[in-house]
Specification:
This protein has eight helices and 17 strands. It has about 375 residues and is of the alpha+beta class.
Length: about 375
């Protein structure tokens, strides 16, 4: 039995390999105390054997509630993923891997690799509806792409999507891929109508360094980008700094910052309640937007979510709160589950890349309807 993690987003540490019994720990994020993301390959598996894997430090993870009713992701080819039975007890995550093949991959959630990221941006660039701008370079010198879909020179509403501030939340980039593919589909009447009056600014991965490093929540300098929006640094959080600079230059009529939540097994969005300059009609507009999304898909709900901030107590270091305060317009944090979605359970696959893509495509009709109604 061999265990490998020296690849894009790989993250695990072996403490013991014995016949039929493997013990592992999750390393901390780079220059950080966060730990939660794991992703590794197992090879030379004895066919037909029983192989029990125990990750022994999950009780020390950033979000230990995330392991309750969680089922681990497994793939034979690193492309087609499925869930297996998993037990969390006394701070240990345990599961028996399938042994009908000699190699398999194990991950916290279905990965979205840097290669996939480049494929997404290259494919978008091939459309005459899209231009790809260099927002900036990451601290480690990787280009950070900004997709501009629609005509930026016309007097159109500006719609922003940002994703993977927290790099281990890979469902966020799956969501963006589904959204981008639908938006660039010239046979899609809703998308064609949207682009007549809207220009989309989309950053598929705001934290490429952390993604490649296999971090859950920070870049390789240990910076949590979604706490940088009040006072970003060119040196430590250039992606946030230059994103705000671009937003200030062209405006923001609508923002959705896409994330994943470890503990809550539902899709939901946050509210702007609690920002200092809260407008009187914001709750009415937010409720209308959420109702439109619930009408569009049964994957969205508004019962299980974060509590609203108290008046004047919103954290303006967070992207959606800062942008809502800065521009006075609709701004959401979207959360999707690492677990299955209890709204529509899927025992085999759980919440995964495919469902995230479909969910991403679904929001475009909601944006069109909300814009037509003057919600933004």
């Amino acid at each position: 039995m061999q265990i490998h993690h020296n690849f894009d987003a790989g993250n695990i540490e072996v403490t013991s390999i014995k016949p039929e019994h493997i013990e592992l720990i999750i390393p901390k994020d780079t220059n950080s105390e966060f730990l939660q993301w794991f992703y590794f390959k197992m090879s030379d598996i004895e066919l037909g054997s029983t192989q029990n894997v125990r990750i022994t430090n999950t009780g020390d993870s950033a979000y230990p509630d995330g392991w309750e009713n969680y089922r681990v992701n497994v793939s034979y080819d690193n492309e087609n993923w499925f869930r297996i039975d998993t037990c969390y007890e006394n701070g240990v995550l345990a599961f028996n891997i399938p042994t009908d093949q000699q190699e398999l991959y194990v991950a916290y959630f279905e990965p979205f690799s840097y290669k996939q990221h480049l494929s997404l941006t290259d494919s978008a660039a091939n459309s005459d509806l899209c231009s790809v701008e260099l927002l900036c370079n990451s601290p480690e010198g990787k280009p950070v792409a900004l997709l501009v879909i629609g005509d930026p020179n016309a007097n159109k509403k500006t719609v922003w999507f940002t994703a993977r501030q927290h790099p281990g939340e890979t469902m966020a980039e799956w969501f963006i891929q589904g959204l981008v593919e639908s938006l660039l589909d010239k046979t899609n009447d809703n998308s064609k109508a949207l682009l007549e009056n809207h220009c989309f600014y989309i950053i598929p991965n705001l934290n490429i360094d952390g993604s490649i490093a296999g971090n859950l929540r920070v870049n390789t300098l240990g910076i949590n980008y979604n706490r940088e929006w009040e006072n970003p640094s060119i040196e430590k959080s250039p992606e946030v700094y230059y994103c705000i600079e671009k937003m200030d230059a062209i405006g923001v009529d609508f923002l959705m910052d896409v994330h994943g939540d470890e503990a809550i097994p539902y899709n939901f969005v946050t509210s702007l309640m609690g920002i200092p300059s809260l407008k009187a009609d914001i709750m009415e507009k937010e409720n209308a937007f959420k109702q439109h999304w619930m009408n569009a898909t049964n994957e969205f709900q508004d019962v299980h979510r974060y509590d609203n901030s108290l008046p004047g107590k919103a954290n303006l270091k967070v992207c959606s709160k800062q942008i809502g305060e800065r521009f006075g317009n609709m701004a959401y944090t979207l959360e999707m589950p690492f677990k299955d979605s209890d709204a529509n359970p899927d025992l085999k696959n759980g919440w995964n890349g495919k469902r995230s893509m479909e969910f991403g495509a679904s929001v475009l009709k909601v944006i069109k309807l909300s814009s037509d109604e003057g919600l933004f």
